[in-house]
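ZP: hey, is the LXAUTJHC complex queued? I don't see it on the tracker
AM: it wasn't, my bad. submitting now with these inputs:
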Amino acid sequence: MVSHIKKFETEDDVAVALAKYICHLSAKFIAMHGSFSVVLSGGTLIDTMRKLTESPYVDSIHWSKWLIFFLDERVVPLDDSDSNYKLAYDGFLKKVPIPECNIYPIKEGLSPEETADEYEHRLKHLVANKTLRTSHATGFAKFDLMLVGMGPEGHVASLFCWHFQRFEKQKWVTFITDSPKPPPQRITFTFPLINSASEIAMVVTGEDAADAVKVALGKHANDHYPLPVQKVSPEGTLTWFLDNKAAPWNLGALCVIL
Ligand SMILES: O=C1O[C@H](COP(=O)(O)O)[C@@H](O)[C@H](O)[C@H]1O
């Protein structure tokens, strides 16, 4: 894994840097293989993507080539205020011309287990028809870019501390019915699928996340029971986007895990 840490003064600076980074990767992957597969988290990430919907970025992207997936989703109707799709639609998707048929929300009206199975089945179908690439190393789908947020206690996607889903090795998508963060019923990509990605951006802003960021990047990491965020280790490149509140210390002073 190649790893970079980009730290900025303010959250607004992170938003600008993230827009530039995504624009760059969009052009690169579309030139390489004609499309750009992007996996979105929910939470604060969507607001931090706001600059992409503004000039000059919005006009420079081939939006028709984008494919949108969801790293985790709450098992609620798509118009529910808890839905990550709704969050992404209101904050990002409705502002850019990505064709509706290129956006892959969960199927509504199923149980959490059925929702996860159906999403995994759809991803496998997209790999089979070559809409998505495959990781030659793992056999899992290989997304071009995953935009990953982190909860204050170090969870990523809906993979939480003390929950067995984080150890899943076979499934691409799994489910949880007792999420410690509401709502309880969710589906989530598993670590093998997450770590098959070409590029992962860990986007973390705000002081609530500082303790987990320090553990994730620092020398006091618990190797026996790492935080979920510490299991993010893509085949490709991991790039941290941090603001000063999430990482208020001198990064050079830490033993950074690269
Ligand atoms: O519940 C969730 O939380 C994480 C972190 O959210 P944040 O608001 O602390 O940024 C998010 O990445 C995930 O997609 C979401 O379902």
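AM: back. The chain has a mean pLDDT of 94.
ZP: great, adding it to the tracker
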